[in-house]
Amino acid sequence: MRVIRGLHNLRDEDRGCVATIGNFDGVHRGHRAILEQCREQAARLGLPVTVVVFEPQPREFFAGDQAPPRLTRLRDKVALLGECGVDRILCLPFNDALRSLTALEFIEQVLVGGLGVRHLVVGDDFRFGCDRRGDFHLLTEVGETRGFGVEHTRTFTVDDERVSSTRVRTLLASGNFAAAARLLGRPYRLGGRVVPDRQLGRTIGVPTANLPQPARSLALQGVYAVVTELPDGRRLPGVANIGWRPTVGSARPVLEVHLFDFDGDLYGRRLTVFPCAKLRGEVKFAHFDELKAQIRADQARARAYFSEHPAGDGSDDSLPLASAPLAREAVTSDSSAGSPADHDDG
């Protein structure tokens, strides 16, 4: 699979394709159904499948920090699209120049002049162009004269409701990881590369692997029972905090993972973390001793969860995904439960 960053990096061999356009955040089962439509047409025409995405996503450009959190960062999205049989990804920078294009200019510069699209698969509610003229009807009309076909995406439903990134975010926020996995077609996961930190966790016997996260990737915040996949394929249970660590201070959000009964050096390694059950929300602690006591309690609850719901043979289907947060426990703090909180960094 080839990732093309910007129109200026298109080659002659990139012209002529079956294409689709969208955010593809999460690459859930609804997205996969769209990609299957593309593959069907690509096989019929003998052409590659190209997915057009934007970075940042348009809503992030316009709404900034008020935009919905991402389910997948670009790196993970690219990997998932590759797993779905996509041949090329055209990543367009969403900036003032792109947002200023009229609908016809976008069609001519991106679809016709850039990609030489032969067939396009988009939703019948798709809108584009600074003049707001871009829609399914305009694409069909232009396609008839410019030599490309257009078809609308099929609606993919689970439990009689359309699968969407918004619906996945809602389920994750509610702690229903089992239902979220049904919509995604896989368990929700986070990841990153382990970096050195202040190693405060080691001073209390709770070392953590610290994986910095982009702010826009925080679809989850709080403390969770997790299963972590190591580079060698082993999967180990543990407890993790996802957040800003205000008790000890943090300039950016961090995924901190404590692996149960593990002793090893993970610095520089890339880990994959599967949240299985939400233990609690975020709390800012007044004193470090309160934080230490809460960490011990979180560890005990996570161990109890995995004792009652053991992981299986290491496949995604064997992960013990909860359908709701675990029963609430009292958390001592000088702040409300809605304040940001953290485990100690290791």
What descriptors fit this protein?
disordered C terminus, alpha/beta, 346 residues, six-stranded antiparallel β-sheet, six-stranded parallel β-sheet
Rg (CA only): 22 Å
Computed structural class: alpha/beta
Largest sheet: 6 strands, parallel
* Spatial order of strands in the largest sheet: 1-4-3-2-5-6
* Overall mean confidence score, pLDDT: 90
Helix content bin = 25-40%
How many DSSP-defined strands?
14
Shape: elongated
What ranges have pLDDT less than 50 throughout 5 or more consecutive residues? 332-346
Q: N-to-C SSE series?
A: EEHEHHEHHEHEEEHHEEEEEEH
Break the fold down into its secondary structure elements and pairings.
Layout: E1 2-5, E2 17-21, H1 29-45, E3 49-55, H2 58-63, H3 74-83, E4 88-93, H4 96-99, H5 103-112, E5 117-122, H6 136-146, E6 149-152, E7 157-158, E8 161-162, H7 165-173, H8 177-184, E9 190-193, E10 209-212, E11 222-229, E12 235-243, E13 254-259, E14 270-280, H9 288-308
Parallel strand pairs: 1-4, 2-3, 2-5, 3-4, 5-6
Antiparallel strand pairs: 7-8, 9-14, 10-13, 11-12, 11-14, 12-13
How would you characterize the overall build of this protein?
By secondary structure, the chain is α/β, with parallel strands linked by helices. It has nine helices and 14 strands. It has helices spanning 29-45, 58-63, 74-83, 96-99, 103-112, 136-146, 165-173, 177-184, 288-308, and strands spanning 2-5, 17-21, 49-55, 88-93, 117-122, 149-152, 157-158, 161-162, 190-193, 209-212, 222-229, 235-243, 254-259, 270-280. Strands 1-4-3-2-5-6 form a six-stranded parallel beta sheet, with helices on both faces. Strand 5 (117-122), helix 6 (136-146) and strand 6 (149-152) form a beta-alpha-beta unit. Helix 7 runs antiparallel to helix 8 (177-184). The protein is elongated. The model is unreliable at 332-346 (pLDDT under 50).
